[in-house]
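Same chain as my last thread, 170 residues:
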Amino acid sequence: MKESPLKKTLGAVFTTLVLFACKGEASKDAKADAKAEPLPIPPKPSNGAPVAAEFVKFVGEGEGRGVELHLYNFDDKPALGYVVLARYYAGDELLEVKAGTPFASDSDFTSLAGAKYECEPKAHATVELDGRALSVPATATRAEVLVSKVDTTGGETLWSQENWSEWPAG
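reply #2:
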């Protein structure tokens, strides 16, 4: 059976309208992205690390929650692995992590590595630290974070503070 000319014309018009509608949505998204404020470059870390880390928010609920971080790489090489130190607060009160255990401390640390954590040179990245690798107190309302060790391609250490698992004095 032959398709009627009217059916062909309506099909072509419909296809054209769909394409224009999709293009319009993409254009709106592109315009919104273009208007988005560029992220500010954070201050360089006090411990001399080439990667700055800033606490964004807690992810999840209770003691099993993770932490979302914003990173900025000041170096000329990509950063692919890190040791991240964290201190947790309830208001202005510094909270103890792993309270009641032989590992109790005023700071927490974890390591992360791999392509999903890559931060290109002179660029921003957002990463999420899995709550199973942290000891976020249930009462914590904010965190202070610091990178204490940075690895680049091939597992090469780009930079490390002397005691990478301890919050630096000062």
